[in-house]
Amino acid sequence: AQRVTQPEKLLSVFKGAPVELKCNYSYSGSPELFWYVQYSRQRLQLLLRHISRESIKGFTADLNKGETSFHLKKPFAQEEDSAMYYCALSLGRSGYSTLTFGKGTMLLVSP
Amino acid sequence: DVKVTQSSRYLVKRTGEKVFLECVQDMDHENMFWYRQDPGLGLRLIYFSYDVKMKEKGDIPEGYSVSREKKERFSLILESASTNQTSMYLCASSFRRGGQPQHFGDGTRLSIL
Fold first, then answer.
1. B4-112, superfamily in CATH?
2. DSSP per-residue string spanning B30-73
3. Which of A28, A52, A102, B100 is the Cys-Cys partner for B95 at CB 3.0 to 4.6 Å?
4. Domains annotated on chain A, with CATH
5. Mean pLDDT of residues grouped by 10 in chain A (111 residues)?
C-alpha cells in the first residue's frame, strides 16, 4: 500500500506565481514528515521537517492530520526553486525508523 | 557538516558481474541506508543497517546484499548484475533516534550492459 502520494509528476509555474506541491500520506500512528529537494546535479537534501515548523527558502509545509496531507507551499516562486521535490514519511520498521518516499514532483519555474 | 561519500559517480558493468558499491559517512551515524532512484518511481529502500554487522531488508532487496563491517562504511553488493539493476543508487545515513533526517551521498549511476 502506497504510504506517500504525490499526485503531480510535474508542476510548471511562472516566476512570482504561488506554488503548492501536494503530498498525502497514509499512516495510523503519529506521522513524522519531511520534504527533500534535489537540484540539478546535486545531492538529495532535506528541505524541511514538519516537527520544526520552520520556513526554509520561503517554503512552508503544514501537517493536516484531518486531510492526511503535508503540502509544500511558497507564495512567490523563483527560478532557482526548479528542482525535484520528494515528500517522505518516517516509519517504524523492525523497531527502527526508515523513510518512505513519494514518487516526487518536478517543479519547473519559468521566467 | 555531514559528509556521505559514495566511491563512484558512474559505473559500467556487464551482466553477471559481481558489483560492489561503497559508501562512507563521517558523522558517527548508527543508521545507514541504500536506495535506488528511478524516474517515476521515486526512491525505494533496498537495505538498511542500524549497527555494525546488522542489516534489515527494505522494500526491494531481491538481487542485492549488503555488508557493514565498520560503523562508517556500508556496502551494497549486486551478486550477479542484471540489466534491470541499471539505476541511480543513493546511500544515506542518520542517527538512530527516531524521526532524524537522513543525509544523502551524491549517488552512483550504475549501468549494466
1. Immunoglobulins (2.60.40.10)
2. SEEEEEEEETTTEEEEEEEESSTT--EE-S--TTEEEEEEETTE
3. B100
4. 4-110 (2.60.40.10)
5. 87 97 89 93 92 85 91 96 95 76 96 94
